[in-house]
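Hey Z.,

So I finally got round to the glutathione thing we talked about over coffee. Here's the setup:
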Amino acid sequence: MSDTNEYVPPKIWTWDKESGGRFANINRPIAGSTHDKDLQVGKHPMQLYSLGTPNGVKVTVMLEELLAKGHSGAEYDAWLVNIGEGAQFSSGFVGANPNSKIPALMDHSTTPPTRVFESGSILLYLAEKFGEFLPTEHVARTECLSWLFWQMGSAPYLGGGFGHFYAYAPIKIEYAIDRFAMEVKRQLDVLDRHLADNEYMAGKDYTIADMAIWPWYGAVVANAAYDAAEFLQTQEYKNVQRWMDLVGDRPAVQRGRMVNRVFGAPESQLHERHDASDFDTKTQDKVAAAE
Ligand SMILES: N[C@@H](CCC(=O)N[C@@H](CS)C(=O)NCC(=O)O)C(=O)O
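And the result:
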């Protein structure tokens, strides 16, 4: 390993706005809102404020799965939150999520509306509300929740750790990339060994654990995140590949990953979702053709 780092931390850290690299615009060391703006509210019980990142996709997949099962109470408006422009720091969004990160859900079927933030908490809230995708038997439920919490604790090493230093940091730091590549490969091996004996993460049934894990680890294995499949040799994880295809083939998953998506092929981007018909009429290719 090369040793080129001459940085010596000062006694007291101070914020240099320029040190944020490509995220300098949005990252800051304080919480709270930067401007007054209310959240928009549509006609459906569920109001989702999000973006089509892996954390956002978990929730749109869940809502689409619930609708596919006939739960009309899961009808939703999905509003786009442009985190690159600081929309997560509006007073309305901070009211829905004091942590200023997508996704945030407001359930307007309760009085007053219930706010839910943290993608894992949103999945659990919806699973309990509609009695779906979470086993009711105690041991099976615990296994599902163990994997859900595994994802919430592990994915920051994949995204904030590996992804950040491999793909986004303004300089390539060998030590950081080595450390997080090792950890991500270890996590993929955890999944691969488990999926060798289990069809889905929590056993024979598809659950919120799959919905949480698939958008992150499925994306890395499919080379849809950080362009790192070759670097990490993800083709080695055969059981993860099998599960990735199994989950990815679900129609609700295919719809969910289009919602609030602002990158990729225009026909795969549905910036906002207010009606089931929007998938047929409002994708970016159709929007552009109508202009
Ligand atoms: N633990 C949170 C993480 C959410 C998160 O990191 N969201 C990112 C996008 S994927 C975000 O909103 N970033 C904006 C920011 O950091 O200001 C969850 O699972 O909901």
